[in-house]
Amino acid sequence: MENEANKNSVSLPQIQFSLSAPEGKEFLLAAGGRPPEKTWLRRAAEHRTLWAIDRGLESFFAAGLVPEQLIGDGDSASPEAWKKALSICIPVERFPSEKDYTDTDLALKKIKADNPSAFIILTGGFGGRFDHAFTTMYSLLSSGLSGCLADEKECLILLNGSSSVEAHCLKRPKAVSLLPLSPMVRGVSFSGVRWPLDNTSISQDRTLTVSNRLADDSDGCRLSFSEGSLGLYFVWDEASL
Q1: Per-10-residue mean pLDDT for the chain, 241 residues long?
Q2: N or C, where is the chain less crowded by C-beta within 10 Å?
């Protein structure tokens, strides 16, 4: 039986999940990709610490939310948004645009230093340039923090090493996929879905774990694996991606 002290439960408007990670302070970071829907963002923001990463500031302001921290190089948020942030005394860390780390990297490093058990919900990570989405995903995966990328359309839970997660969908997803984020992932068991797995190895050069779906009698799924890095992906709205 898993130690409940080493499980973290996370609730978003369309999904709830618990994973094998120590419970820690939850941060909601808004980045500069596809803006989340305002109502979704307001609900996701409840009881969480809000950080804006450059243009993510505009998503918070559009939803009537004020972040506790703004970090970035100022190359994507409007000058008006930055001016407003300064006028209402939001703490700001501004960096030069020519630097070795992305704004997301810098935000994650700062959170990790002060809150090593934090759980990160990163919105505004999907959409826009593929290179931005790709590096955002791997920045979070390699940060040493637990977390997910999420908005009202998609959710990607990132898992490292020997891990397990149990998800309960409040809204039925169109598809559920397992995305190997290391060359090989071993000991994969996946239940509650149309095509389950039992202690299987999966690799990045195979596509057998894409576009699964929940079983007809299931409103959630359970995933565990023993080695590697893996993303558990849900999509609710394909038409507007």
Answers
A1: 66 95 90 96 98 95 97 83 92 79 93 95 93 94 96 97 96 97 97 97 93 97 97 92 77
A2: N
Q: Which amino acid is at 22?
A: P
CB 27 within 8 A of CB 120: yes
Residue holding tokens 């997803």? 173
β-strand 92-94 against 49-53: which pairing, if any? unpaired
Q: What is the pTM of this model?
A: 0.94
Burial 98-111 (b: 16+ CB within 10 A, else e): eeeebbbbbbbeeb
End-to-end CA, the chain: 39
**Beta strands at 146-150 and 119-123: parallel, antiparallel or unpaired:** parallel
Distance CA 103, CA 236 (A): 28
Domain ranges of the chain: 6-152, 155-241
Look up the CATH superfamily of 6-152: Thiamin pyrophosphokinase, catalytic domain (3.40.50.10240)
Distance CA 84, CA 41 (A): 20
The phi and psi torsions of 85 (rounded to 5 degrees) equal -60, -45
Of the candidate CATH numbers 3.40.50.2000, 1.10.10.10, 2.60.120.260, 2.60.120.320, the domain formed by 155-241 belongs to: 2.60.120.320
Cα separation, 67 vs 45, in Å, equals 10
Q: Where are the beta strands (DSSP E) in 13-107?
A: 15-19, 26-30, 49-53, 69-72, 92-94
Determine what percent of the chain falls in helix, strand and coil, rounding each to the nearest 5: 20, 35, 40
